[in-house]
Specification:
Helix content is 43%, strand content 17%. By secondary structure, it is α+β, with helices and mostly antiparallel strands.
Length: 455
């Protein structure tokens, strides 16, 4: 009886040993070749860029020069409305068919927006890229904008505005942009409350006709064959081949001191000057300066004063909880650089003055080569680590493709960072610090200094 029970076990052990032996004798896996970024320009002017990372999943994004900076006083919030309308019916698919179709293919689709771009992204299996991109192409090429569907986005828009009201950091960013610029980059990422429910099908169609031209688009993919993506761009995206939408040059005015009083024990404040554009030679130098001043902890639950000059200086001025960080926003023709601070309402004068003092000290040469080297290492690490994240890599490739139709790799950027000197950091700090400042503050501002009390 016992021998009969042991026979199956013996056979299983023998088969396992045979499988192990076969695995040891199997040939090693073939190393897939590493490929660099490839960029092409279609006959209609659309830029197609790809980077083959041999992933089983393809990630594709369509970047359109149609962000909020392209809006005018009569159609404010249209980019917000178009983002929310991304999954509405098209002339080819109903809203249900579009959503269900992407899901059946095992894919995902999302829309987002910045001040300069509307972004549509899809993730899908490599062998399902053509049908998945077919849905994306229909969204941007043949929207239906049925009145009853367009009216439904007003509720979603109102919810997003209400959520934003409970995000002080987001509100402060919007306030500082509105104060620093005139039109264009001053436009909010969200629709004004007065425009909720006012975006008509005609208004949205007109905005798309203005901005959705092939010369203002870039189709970018990771985990895709470049020739296949080029062919899909040619076959699927039948949009206007006219020139890209014209944007008014960024007009930094500065000098404003915007304040919004709200009850509560915490205050938020930001002070900025004009920084560098994405095309500026000072872009990387300001990136080093940002990390020299401090832009967040690098160790989870670790001290935020170890590598943050701002926090070290403020910690000597107050014993209450606070947080300061260096703010650096870059656009194609301008940028903002400065400080964000949050703290107890009755301590904000000490927090802001100490932070501005630390920033000003660098302009006077109070910076060590070792600190600059540490900041350079942090910037290089951030650039190189971003290449390990497919979302960050896709965004970087897409931004460069849509704006320059070229690509500078993370390794090339790291080499440029290595060449930055301490003298360059002091020089760029002086230029930016001595620019015309802009301030915004939110919360209980009874002890928050005004702009003229800080600079």
């Amino acid at each position: 009886m016992a021998s009969r029970l042991l026979r199956p076990l013996s056979r299983r052990l023998q088969s396992t040993q045979a499988a192990v032996k076969e695995a040891h004798t199997a040939p090693p896996p073939v190393a897939l070749p590493k490929e660099g970024a490839k960029i092409s320009k279609l006959s209609n002017g659309m830029v197609v860029a790809s980077l083959e990372n041999n992933s089983p999943v393809s990630r594709v994004a369509l970047y359109v020069k149609a962000g909020s900076r392209y809006e005018n006083p009569h159609n404010l919030g249209t980019s917000h409305a178009l983002r929310l309308a991304a999954t509405l019916s098209t002339k080819e698919f109903s809203a249900f068919r579009l959503t269900r179709g992407v899901e059946v293919l095992g894919g995902s689709l999302e829309a987002s927006a910045t001040r300069e771009h509307l972004v549509y992204k899809v993730d899908c299996l490599r062998d399902q890229m053509q049908p998945t991109l077919g849905y994306l192409a229909s969204i941007v090429s043949a929207p239906a904008f049925k009145p009853w569907e367009v009216s439904s986005i007003a509720e979603k828009m109102a919810v997003e505005l209400a959520v934003t009201e409970n995000q002080p950091a987001v509100l402060l960013s919007e306030m500082i942009h509105a104060s620093a610029y005139r039109d264009g980059l001053a436009n909010s990422l969200n629709a004004p409350e007065a425009m909720v429910g006012k975006h008509t099908p005609g208004m949205m169609s007109e905005y798309m006709q203005q901005c959705f031209s092939s010369q203002g688009m870039a189709l970018v993919g990771l985990g895709t064959d470049h020739d296949s993506l080029v062919q899909l761009g040619e076959d699927l995206f039948s949009v206007s081949s006219g020139p890209a939408a014209t944007k008014a040059p960024a007009n930094y005015v500065g000098g404003a001191d915007t304040r919004r009083h709200t009850p509560g024990p915490i205050s938020y404040a930001a002070i900025v000057t004009e920084g560098s554009s994405l095309n500026s030679t000072d872009l990387l130098s300001l990136g080093v300066l940002q990390r020299l001043l401090g832009c967040g902890p690098y160790i989870k639950y670790g001290s935020d004063t170890a590598s943050s000059r701002l926090n070290r200086g403020v910690a000597q001025a107050t014993q209450t909880p606070f947080s300061t960080t260096c703010f650096n926003a870059n656009y194609t023709d301008s940028g903002l650089f400065g400080l964000f601070a949050v703290g107890q309402a009755d301590q904000m004068a000490k927090v802001m003055k100490a932070a501005v003092s630390q920033y000003g000290a660098i302009t006077k040469g109070d910076v060590k080569d070792a600190d600059v080297q540490r900041a350079k290492s942090q910037l290089k690490a951030a650039v190189l680590m971003s290449a390990e994240d497919t979302g960050s890599l896709l965004e970087d490739l897409a931004l460069q493709a849509v704006e320059t139709a070229a690509y500078v790799s993370p390794d090339q950027v790291a080499a440029q960072v290595d060449a930055i000197t301490t003298d360059q950091i002091v020089k760029v700090a002086k230029r930016v610090f001595n620019g015309k400042p802009t301030m915004a503050a939110l919360g209980d501002l009874s002890n928050t200094p005004h702009l003229d009390q800080l600079v």
